[in-house]
Amino acid sequence: MALSSPRRSALSGQVIAELRNQITSGEWPVGSRIPTEPELVEQLGVARNTVREAVRALAHNGLLDIRQGSGTYVVATSELAGVMHRRFAGADPCHIAELRSTLESSAARLAAERRTERDLRLLDALLERREDAWRTGYAEVFVQVDAAFHLAVVAASHNEVMSEVYADLGHLLRDWLRDDVGEELRPEYHMDHARLVEAIRAGDADTAGAEAAGYPFLCLRASAPSAPPAPSAT
Q1: Which of 19, 72, 101, 203 gives a 20 to 30 Å CA spacing to 29?
Q2: Does 14 reside within a domain?
Q3: Per residue in 181-233, pLDDT tens?
Q4: pLDDT greater than 90 at residue 49
Q5: What is an example of a GO molecular function annotated in this UniProt entry (predicted)?
Q6: Structural domains in the chain (count)
Q7: Is the dihedral of CA 85, 25, 68, 10 positive or negative?
Q8: Residue 110 burial (CB < 10 Å; 0-12/13-18/19+)?
């Protein structure tokens, strides 16, 4: 998609707005590398310094990450998401998992009361995609689809504030899930979410909330007591 050339007045602000729009619209998704500085200069028809200033501003706000020798990458879709990612990047993984569990449990309860037929069709489709992704054995594929499924559960709550906060936490939650899943999809760590979808479909708020609040694997593994030593053979 070609970028529109901004008017000459207030160029810096217009370029920032133009680049932000590419991010928030999904033209430049999280994880993607944006066009190089010379490419942006040509597309926008502005001076190199103006482009550089806009990119630095968005990097300061947490939307972009400038990596010397590699390029500039999208790391968040909003300023709030960028702030959250920077602020909690080093947080205790169990605390991230507990936050996710709390948000999703509340959202699932609301989803059971407010879901529409369209919500249910989307959840059914994403549940099937999630199972297919698990069967591929590719951890990153599963992480992306699982994240989309959980976002759809929260969206089905029809609480706009909760949905936006959860979406802003998305990058942080995907990082947690990558650590939780690991590089290999192991059968003993698979969680079936069919009961969650059925509880939402049935309007059973208590069951939906309980299913969504399932205690995260990472914390279970970290806190599980070690097995007692085997008895001596002698």
Answers
A1: 101
A2: yes
A3: 777 777 766 788 999 999 999 999 999 999 998 755 545 544 544 444 444 33
A4: yes
A5: DNA binding
A6: 2
A7: negative
A8: buried
